[in-house]
Amino acid sequence: MTATESQQTAGAVLSAPFFFRGEVVEGTAAVHRSRDLGVSFATPDIDLDRVVAPRTEVPPLLDVPLDEIVDFLVEAGRRIRDPRNPFIGECIDRMSATHTLPRALLEAQVAGAAAYLDKQILHAVVEQNFPDPKALDGWIAKQDFQGRKSFVRAFAPRLIHVLPGNSPGQAVKSIAQGALVKAINLFKMSSSDPFTTPAILRTMADIDPGHPVVRSMSAVYWRGGDAAVERVLFRPQYFDKIVAWGGGDAIDNVVKYLGPGLQLVSFDPKTSISMVGRQAFGTAATLEHAAGLAADDVMVLNQDACVASRFVFLEANEQDADRFCDRLYRRIAERATASGGNRPLGAELKEEIRTLALLDDEFRVWGATDGTGVVIRSGAPVDFHPVGKTVNVVAVESLDAAIRYVTVATQTVGFFPFDRMPDFRDRLAAGGAQRIVRLGEAGPSTIGNPHDAMYPLHRFVHWMVHEDGTVATPGFAGRLDE
Hints:
This protein is an alpha/beta fold and 482 residues long. The protein is 34% helix and 21% strand. The termini are far apart.
């Protein structure tokens, strides 16, 4: 048993330190409870003066070459993956008490995200987000067809990152992305995971406590919606943009503070789906293969990720749909057993499923509400949000009929068979979907591709223009203002 586990067994409150631009601050001034499990953790008081950098301060990373930033991040990634790293070990111990994901998945999340801190990956991310990455390192000279000169720079922004609670690995990526755009960053942690971000930053400080990356980062926790904190911090005189992940309530809470000079970059709630064509029933082996791929997409982060499928639109009659559902349930149950951490569904969702199970003429249910997986077959999508390894298979005569269920809240669409994807991608985009992938590949993403229909780093920066008059151009006489 670890020291942290012993503390929990004894009823002690977990300690969640803050990180202020290179300095770790411990304290027990405030006690909070984690969102999902209700576990207590203690934090210091927030010193608001320490998390705000005055506008007169030039961002520490502004004149640090991008290559040097990448090298530092790569070294941090190596240290994060080192099994001897005490900060990461302690982080996993503590997070195992507050997070719904099992310990093995938490460890895999942090280690997998640390693999993002790779030189080739980081450069690819920058190159995909910026037509000319040199704009991050200095002023890029331009001249339009009328002869007007200008200089453009992707200037270091001031960002508040409202981190998600479902994916500890996002802390690693958010820190890296904040460094790549040379931002001054304040990370607002979630109650499910007030540990990962300081652990990553402490690892970086252990490399070099005075490094500009370290001096650009702060991480604190406050309860979302705490006006005493947010009325002070969510102001354009302190920050340029709020980069917010989370559920509808979290995003709505941020929106009320927006105004001139303070923008929102929102990774708001999304639902991902699967679309499976009649070709899945070509042979018994094909049916097994398609069901396995669909289960892979359902089970991304135990269905806690936005990319995890919750609805499968299946081109089939009722009899074939039941054959698919039976196989899908078995594959989900296998993966649930392997991943562990099976938590019974909430009372409200249990009651919804119990009611549907009684309506045999409209619905059929496979599985149990004990957290090992549930598959619901219906003729139209259920009117609740499937969670906890629960998936709704909707039988349709044609996948064309499924398009009407695609909205701007549809993030990823896993598709089978693969050769039909080009026929649907424009219509899916018109409906609001943001990503179409081969069924079974919802989890991994192509490096540097748009996320939630945008290039995030391009949105993060403060685009600054210096215009410097008109120069003589052949065939053009006079000034623009004449």
